[in-house]
Amino acid sequence: QVQLVESGGGLVQAGGSLRLSCAASGRSFSSYGMAWFRRAPGKEREFVARITSDGDRTYYIDSSMRGRFTISRDNAKITVYLQMNSLKPEDTAVYYCNAVGTPYWGQGTQVTVAS
């Protein structure tokens, strides 16, 4: 079993940056691909980015996201990160991390981007 705890959200002005962290517990963290999702107000949860278990490959919802967001992981620290730059008001959402293919989700961290 894996427990996930997100942090790093907050209020930021448009064009600003935030780095989200997802700290995991459990011995099997390094065997899971990890992903970030988000849910904006009134919308369905959507995929943001994913990283393979060894950190060698990353995937993003689209090229625009790839240019602004960077997913990474530190298996020694059992943590996955989401660096978000050039934030836009439409990035406002609750961000969640997930161990890919499992029912393990964090509680979410709120990101609010002011225009």
- Classify the helix fraction into a percent range: under 10%
Q: Structural class of the secondary elements?
A: mainly beta
Number of strands: 10
Mean pLDDT: 94
Helix segment tally:
1
Strand content: over 45%
Run of helices and strands: EEEEEEHEEEE
Distance between the termini: 40 Å
Which parts are unreliable, with pLDDT below 50 for 5 consecutive residues or more? none
How would the global form be characterised? Answer: globular
Strand order of the largest sheet: 2-10-9-4-5-6
Radius of gyration: 13 Å
What are the defining features of this structure?
115 residues, four-stranded antiparallel sheet, 10 strands, single chain, six-stranded mixed sheet, mainly beta, 1 helix
Give an account of the 3D structure.
With 115 residues, the protein is mainly beta. It is 5% helix and 50% strand. The chain has 1 helix and 10 strands, in the order E-E-E-E-E-E-H-E-E-E-E. The strands form 2 sheets. It has a 6-stranded mixed β-sheet with strand order 2-10-9-4-5-6. A hairpin with a 6-residue loop joins strand 5 (45-51) and strand 6 (58-60). The longest helix has 6 residues, at 63-68. The protein is globular and about 40 Å long. The mean pLDDT is 94.
